[in-house]
Amino acid sequence: MHDERPVTIPASVRPVPGLPVDDLLASSHELARQWALALIAQLPLERIDEVPLDDLARGAPALCAQTLRALTSDADLSRLTGESTDTRGGPAPALELARISGADGPAGVTRAVEALRGVLWGALTIEMAGAHGRDLADTCDRLAHVCSCALEAVLRSRTRPAAASGDPASGPAPVEDTRGETRVVSTPLAAGVQIIDEHSEERAAEVPVAPPGGSGEDGLEIEIRDQRSRPGPSAWIDTIARRLEVFSRDSRPFSVLLVEPMDPAVLRGSQEPGAAAELCDELETALAGELSAAGQPHWATRVLTRESPGRWWVLSAEPDRAGADALAARLERAACEVLDGRGRPLQVAVGTAVCPDDGCEPPALAAHADIGLFAARSSARAAGRRAAATVDDIG
User: Of 34, 92, 157, 223, which one's alpha carbon is 20 to 30 angstroms from that of 172?
Assistant: First the structure.
């Protein structure tokens, strides 16, 4: 005879109404950033670009916030997992987890949920530093219960019949790799600028080019070489890894910056054939020129790496956030000297990371810079909207 008595939920996984989550809810963007870093840290170097940072920037804050609310209320737990019909104007946050995290398969989803649990538990322990041990234990159990419910909801949704294209329940859609060639530009203080085209079909001639404002008489040259034979991860992550090897010996801090146009569409096919590539090269030259002009310690080497058309990584000897931000501002001003297809100054967004403050591993530094880039772009767009609203109010 089957036992049909209702399942009794242990007291330890019942809601904890008095949890101090208000401040954490206000910090949901920071929690989302930490979750993104945790997701990236799980991957080998050559796969860290699989984490969809754009989707995370849009969806992860809401997921973190709803997970926190679910600690204090079963109704909010139902909203998190989609069991409640009240989705507050959108899909249940947990059902978006696989898509925004880039998780592939049950194992990937499980790792993503565990990374989220770890981030939220770390934040909760700080917030509850003076709490009684029993309260901490109950909170820990409730968080584990909420995350297990979220995991079950995600896995259940992914086993349903395939939905129409674009349905989050159908899992992430394949993404075509449209990245172009990788180019490396290193800028030693005495030797100038060196551009290396890693995927050139044939060895290019070495052509010295003076950067903007320079005569080329002091060794400030651009040298193009074919580096197709170099194995391993992509050039930009390899460059960070090599600089970290130096850091392990000299302990000198350094900065990683990520540069993209504020509107990436300006470097895509909205212009005459070939114009986008010319504009990309012009912007790269402007960035390289600024890096050449800025002073560095005698022991330092500044490196500019083109990951793909319109996306550059910079390694520099700036030892702290203030120095990295100052260099970012100079790169932004240098970019404005370039005019886009409509004759307007080209604006760029720059994300920054500092070693060792933001980590001592390539994925951590890359993630901090990438997330900083999204924050810079979002902040600039918000400022533009506020300015436009002010003009409308005055009008």
Answer: 34
